[in-house]
């Protein structure tokens, strides 16, 4: 009574990884994001009236939100609007941070 012992299947050899030909080039910012935008008077009450790039607008709005403690304590993704932000958000008392960027873009040209 001979029992044939099974050999475990041989694993295929791992394919050799491609060597990095050259290091990644340094990222250059997109010119469209760096273009100074004209700010509406409503938004200017919150962040100032000077033309600044879209990326800086978002940063300044977040600085305002954190300075005035307007993030919802229970759900940090929601922003509770004060009187100035309520005008920017179209009268809404609370918006999500994702909706906020959409509403702010309507005040830039």
Walk me through the structure:
With 109 residues, the protein is α+β, with helices and mostly antiparallel strands. The chain has a domain at 33-105: MDM2 (Orthogonal Bundle), CATH 1.10.245.10. The protein contains 5 helices and 4 strands, in the order αβαβαβαβα.
Which regions are unreliable across 5 or more consecutive residues at pLDDT < 50? none
Distance between the termini: 87 Å
Taken as a percent bin, the fraction of beta residues is: 5-15%
Task: Give the class from helix and strand content and strand pairing.
Answer: alpha+beta
Give the oligomeric state of the chains in this entry, treating copies of one chain as homo and distinct chains as hetero. Answer: single chain
Radius of gyration: 26 Å
Domain DM2: 32-109
Biased composition (Low complexity): 1-23
Protein name: SWIB/MDM2 domain-containing protein
Region (Disordered): 1-32
């Amino acid at each position: 009574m001979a029992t044939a012992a099974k050999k475990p299947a041989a694993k295929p050899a791992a394919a050799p990884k491609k060597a990095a030909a050259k290091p990644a080039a340094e990222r250059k910012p997109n010119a469209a994001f760096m273009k100074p935008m004209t700010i509406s008077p409503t938004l200017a009450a919150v962040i100032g009236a000077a033309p600044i790039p879209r990326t800086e607008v978002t940063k300044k709005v977040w600085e305002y939100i954190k300075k005035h403690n307007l993030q919802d304590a229970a759900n940090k993704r929601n922003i509770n609007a004060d009187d100035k932000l309520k005008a920017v958000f179209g009268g809404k008392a609370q918006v999500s941070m994702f909706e906020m960027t959409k509403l702010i873009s309507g005040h830039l040209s």
